[in-house]
Specification:
Blueprint lengths: L70 H30 L11 E5 L5 H10 L6 H10 L9 E5 L5 H10 L4 E5 L6 H10 L4 H9 L24 E5 L4 H18 L2 H7 L4 H14 L7 H14 L6 H11 L29 H8 L8 E4 L5 E4 L2 H11 L8
Antiparallel strand pairs: 1-2, 3-4, 5-6
Length: 409
């Protein structure tokens, strides 16, 4: 059945009618295979967008590196860092230096005697001051003296310095060239132990003070003083001025000299003899009067009369201050029954020696007692002294005037 056969399809393009050759159809170039891009985890819609990726090189596929910092900028930052480090270091050094110039203890105003020997170097002086705990740092001391141009102006000598002074104050002290003086005040009625503390507070060591107090001294003041007796009662109460180089022995000798001047001025040796007492015994009785009297001392002559009357009649002196003195000195409790010759409640006559350093009023009162025949006295709660001729009068004075002070402990 050929008539129903389809004609063959010509799949070749028809030849053009013109005589020109056919123009070939341009074939597009095949693009290079795309580079595989890195994959990132899927973001949620609420997450921040990722920064855009750098374009890849179409030739090599390698991401380009960022440009390098300029050399000038790097040097600038290095210089800034170095300057900052230097400033911090200098600040730390200045803070340390300033703190080391401060006083060691601003609350401690006690004076210490420091002797700078001739020929001492600045380093020797700095070490001595640090060892004595008067400055915080040898190095800061030396830096300060060098910076201020006074390192070669430090002068030898004896100085009284305090931990409450700063390094600049101490340096000024050591370079001023002024002669150092100081005062010592001993109080009337003070005991030997009280006066020992005064000397230690003046800047002397315990060893210096104890050695001086144990030493024997040659003075007419000690007439009648038993051999081996200490200096109780002999450091006269007064204020004295001394050079810093004064020794403890020199201070004591000066007080003895002053004391004996008071004795001579008031003719005490002769007047005590008229009362039947030696100079030593007169000082002993005056020391008791000093401790028994009121602060003003207006009752001293009458108190001396009471003691003289008791001595004449053979009664015990009955003074509480004598047993209290020896109890405190020996470190035992105060007891009216204390068995000691210093307990004039139990033992008649004078105690073995003075119990304090009497002042001029007490010394003169014993030399010139008031008239009267009283045998008793007491200091009332109102600080008024009341006298009695009999025990009954004395007990009435206790009931009426001495409810607190007379409760003896």
């Amino acid at each position: 059945m050929d008539e129903f056969r389809r004609p063959p399809v010509n799949r070749v393009a028809p030849r053009p009618t013109s005589e020109q050759p056919p123009v070939p159809t341009p074939v597009p170039p095949v693009p290079p295979a795309p580079q595989a891009l890195p994959t990132f985890p899927e973001q949620s819609p609420l997450s921040a967008p990722q920064p855009p990726l750098q374009p890849l090189s179409t030739e090599t596929g390698i991401q380009p590196t960022p440009p390098k910092k300029s050399r000038k900028k790097t040097i600038l930052w290095a210089f800034v860092g170095l300057v900052a480090l230097i400033i911090l270091t200098l600040g730390a050094v200045w803070f340390w230096y300033s703190s080391q110039l401060a006083p060691v203890d601003s609350s401690n105003t006690d004076k210490q005697v420091v002797t700078i020997e001739s020929g001492s170097t600045p380093s020797d002086i700095a070490k001595l001051l640090e060892d004595e705990k008067l400055i915080r740092s040898q190095d800061a001391f030396l830096w300060y003296t060098r910076i201020n141009g006074v390192q070669n102006n430090l002068q030898a000598g004896a100085y009284r310095l305090s931990p409450s002074e700063s390094t600049p104050e101490i340096v000024e002290h050591l370079t001023s060239g002024k002669v150092d003086t100081f005062s010592v005040t001993f109080l009337p009625g003070a005991t030997l132990m009280d006066n020992r503390e005064v000397l230690v507070s003046a800047g002397y060591s315990d060893e210096e003070v104890d050695a001086a107090l144990a030493k024997s001294y040659d003075s007419p003041l000690f007439e009648g003083k038993p051999e081996g007796a200490d200096l109780e009662g002999y450091i006269y109460g007064e204020t004295y001025n001394f050079g810093t180089d004064a020794t403890v022995e020199a201070i004591l000798e000066h007080t003895f000299e002053y004391y004996y001047g008071v004795v001579q001025e008031n003719d005490l040796i002769a007047k005590y003899a008229a009362q039947g007492l030696s100079l030593y015994e007169g000082i002993t009785l005056a020391s008791i009067v000093q401790r028994e009297a009121s602060p003003g001392g207006d009752d001293m002559a009458q108190i001396a009369q009471v003691f003289y009357s008791r001595l004449e009649t053979g009664m015990v002196l009955g003074s509480d201050v004598t047993y209290q003195y020896i109890a405190d000195k020996t470190g035992v409790p105060r007891d009216t029954n204390l068995d000691s010759p210093y307990n004039t409640r139990r033992y008649p006559g004078l105690p073995p020696g003075p119990i304090s350093a009497p002042g001029e009023k007490a010394l003169v009162a014993v030399a010139n007692p008031a008239s009267g025949d009283y045998l008793f006295f007491l200091s009332g709660d109102d600080d008024v002294t009341y006298y009695g001729r009999t025990l009954e009068e004395h007990e009435a004075n206790i009931r009426n005037h001495c409810q607190v002070k007379c409760q003896i402990i």
